[in-house]
Amino acid sequence: MLALALAGCVRAPAPVATPPPARVAQSPTAASPLVVAPGPAADAVRTRFAGRLRAPLPTAIRRELRGGTWRPGCPVPLGDLALLRFNHIGFDGEIHRGRLVINRSVASDVLDVFRTLFEAGFPLERVDLARPFRPNADPNTRRNVTAGFNCRPVITPEGPGTTFSQHAYGLAVDVNPLQNPYVAADGSVRNRFARPYVDRAQDLPGMIHEGDVVVRAFARIGWSWGGRWTGARDHMHFSLTGR
Questions:
Q1: With helix as H, strand as E and coil as C, how does the chain read?
Q2: What is the tens place of the pLDDT at every residue in 156-203?
């Protein structure tokens, strides 16, 4: 009886709470929506066209131009230029962010052109600032940059001319130079990497053809296409003046 009494005085151990099983993070699938945390990472996810016009030029861009494509004596002051930043479709099918400097008087119109190209799915390999002009540079390059302002002379198959290009005024844009080369009247092309695209009957990504979305988009803002010139034809080139 004493043993039973002592046993009745001993408390039974309290049940131990079992923690819930840990949640295992799984990679998002097609059935689960992708959630992006706010902040820079969210800004990096691009799903549609977005563009921004900055005028006057940001200080960092002014510095970059002063050290490269702009110098005293250019026919347009830095204050007359604007910076465009916008999304574009790349040759890889992904959405990329590009930057382009253009005359601020036409900047809004040019931004609308690139909105049209984005919505049509027309690919641009890269959109960026032009490189400084060097008269003795090797013309053979795989660099394929859609660009606007560049304080340089007119360039022909024979070399640089003596007058300013419309790029020097910020009133011209070159689109995919490799796929749309400057072709001399005799059919020659300075850049050997662009020669596979001399045959304009081809319909390859990034090529521009008469009546296509690129030509129509620039025509809507009053710009002309160098692919319509007689004799030599500059298939990459669009300008406000037609030159």
A1: CHHHHHHHHCCCCCCCCCCCCCCCCCCCCCCCCCCCCCCHHHHHCCCCCCEEEECCCCHHHHHHHHCCCCCCCCCCCHHHEEEEEEEEECCCCCEEEEEEEEECCCHHHHHHHHHHHHHHCCECCCECCCCCCCCCCCCCCCCCCEECCCCCEEEECCEEEEEECHHHHCCEEECCCCCCCEECCCCCCCCHHHHHHCCCCCCCCCCCCCCCHHHHHHHHCCCEEHHHCCCCEECCEEECCCC
A2: 777 788 899 999 999 999 999 999 999 999 999 999 999 999 999 999
Q: What is the pTM (predicted TM-score) of this model?
A: 0.81
Beta-bridge mates of residue 224: 239
Residue the block writes with tokens 């298939």 = 235
Closest by CA position to 74, among listed 130, 150, 128: 150
**How many residues are recorded in the chain?**
243
- Each domain of the chain, given as residue ranges in start order, spans 45-131+142-239
**Count of Cβ atoms closer than 10 Å to residue 241 Cβ:** 11
